[in-house]
Amino acid sequence: MHSPAPEAGPGQRERLILLGIAIVLAAAVLWLRGGLQPQAPLEALARRSPELSVALASGKPTLVEFYADWCEACRSMAPAMDAVETRSRDQLNVVLLNVDNPRWLPEVERYEVNGIPHLELFDGSGSPVGRAIGVRSRGELESLAQALINGQPLPALAGVGVTSSLAEGPAEGSPERSATTVSATQAGPRSHG
Fold it and tell me: Which superfamily, per CATH, for 41-163?
C-alpha cells in the first residue's frame, strides 16, 4: 500500500511562495537589463571594432565614433550604430574610441573632440571627408554610411560638416602664409573668432 504524501509543514508553504516571488523578480531584472547578454550594444560594438590604424589602411571607408560609457546619448545611438555596422560590415569600418581611455587621447586632440557622440568620417584611402557632432538616428547613420560607401557627398544634416586639408593653403613658413591664416588654423574647437 502507498502511504499518503507528507503534508507541508508549518512555514514551508510561505517559503515556496517567497521562492516563487524571488524567481519572478530575478527574471524581471534580467529582462530589464537586456537578458543574458554580457554587454550592452555600445560595449559589444566597441569590443569588435577594428584598430583605427588598421581600419584607415584597409581600403574601405571608415566611420569613427568617439564615445564614453557614461554618455546616455552614445548609449541611445548604439543600437542604430550596431545595425549600420552589421549591415555594412563588408563595405565600411566602424571604429569606436572611448574618450575616457588615455590610449585615445592623441586622437581626441587631433580630431578636436569636445563633445560626444562625435563622428569622424573617412574615405577608402583613409582621408578625412567630414564629421558629425551629436546624436544621430538610424536613418541618418545609414545615409552617412551609404554616402561613404558610394563615395558621394555627405548628406546635408544638422551638425554634419565636410573637412578639408590644411595643406590646401600656403605652406607653413612660406611668405604667403599670413598671420591671419596661422591664427585661423590654430584656433581651437571652442574658439569663436
Answer: Glutaredoxin (3.40.30.10)
